[in-house]
Amino acid sequence: MAVPSALHPFDEHVLTAKAMAFSVLARHSHLWIDEHLPLLSELETVIGKAELLRKVARENVALPTFLKDYVGNIESTVGPLVKNSPQLFEGYLADLQGIRPEWPPISQQVERWFDNLKTIGADYLKHSTTEKPKLPPIHLEQKVSPEDCTLRGLGAATNEDRGGRIITLFYDREAFGKESFLSIPYMLSHEFWCHGLSRLAAKKTGKGKRREEDDEGEDDEPFGTDPSNGFEEGWMDFVQLEILGRELRPFIGMPSFEALFHSHSAGCQVQRNAQKGNAVISHGVSVADRFYTFLEQSFDGLSVKELTSVFLQTSLDLNLLSNRLGDKPGLVINLGHKLGVSAASERVRPEVMRDRDLAIVSMREQLRLDLSSMLTKTGFPAIDLLKLLKIKR
Predict the structure, then answer these.
(1) What's phi and psi for 177, nearest 5 deg?
(2) Distance between CA 129 and CA 147 in Å, rounded?
(3) 188 shares a domain with 277
(4) H/E segment holding residue 236
(5) Is residue 4 part of a domain?
(6) pLDDT tens-place string over residues 233-274
(7) Phi and psi, residue 139, nearest 5°
């Protein structure tokens, strides 16, 4: 397994300073309304200004000193601009000064989150999957690489390495802004649940223990972003956001920022879905969302907790399957068709469209009956679900 590389000290200092200042501002910004908005905009600009960061940077300066000088420069730069209601800026500054001594380096903070995520993931594999595979070796790497950042000054990728996984979190130091730090949990969670825990079942047997011959021949598709994979990139992104919301406290451990992390994670998904070339991903998210709602409407005998358990276990079981065992992107398309969620670029003939409402009602009722017949106490068996939707194995 490759050894994760460390951030350069200057990159670490700059990213940490921006993360701290922007995050504290986020829990004050709701107070800055009406006539105070121009000053809020000026404050946001100052926090991220490269000149300010270079001004406080010195050779081999320790992070606490860097942060102290950085906050001091924010005060001296913005303070003279405050005329009306200086208490808003003073409140922000007091909060910033109070939190500064305890704010850790960003790489350490993210590593701690990642360790928590692995603990949560191992528990889900044990209690919320049918095959209960062990958590594979998963390591985190952090790099400054602007060309790999596509969302809010961040980027991420997952690669397979000797049976384990390496998740890389990329930073764009210059573009790292007011939404970046609060969006890191979404980036980590997506890579971990969608890719880090995918395809852990044996390719031929569908069981958790791999046979030697399973490793012969071609491997599955490469790990990482594939805009054409509506299941792993779309459906599972909906799933990971549901899990993130449920497990945010043990994952992050920052109660006063919890609501901000939650709202920014949801915003990340919306923004990612809207990006050019991500129509299939957006469709996958919509189908998973619609399927969850369909289960709520169709199985009113189950409690909310039971329904959530069924949905999550079915999704995690599907994600564990090797791509050789079933066409999971095809499942998303076929299930979406039955639920009335049109796929990207899908064209429906006018004569079909006229009767579509009746057709969808009929397909949903048949789907409800078919799912009822295969429902177990833990969910829908993944292979049976693939067969039901006529996905070729």
Answers:
(1) -125, -155
(2) 37
(3) yes
(4) helix 236-252
(5) no
(6) 999 999 999 999 999 999 999 999 999 999 999 999 999 999
(7) -120, 155
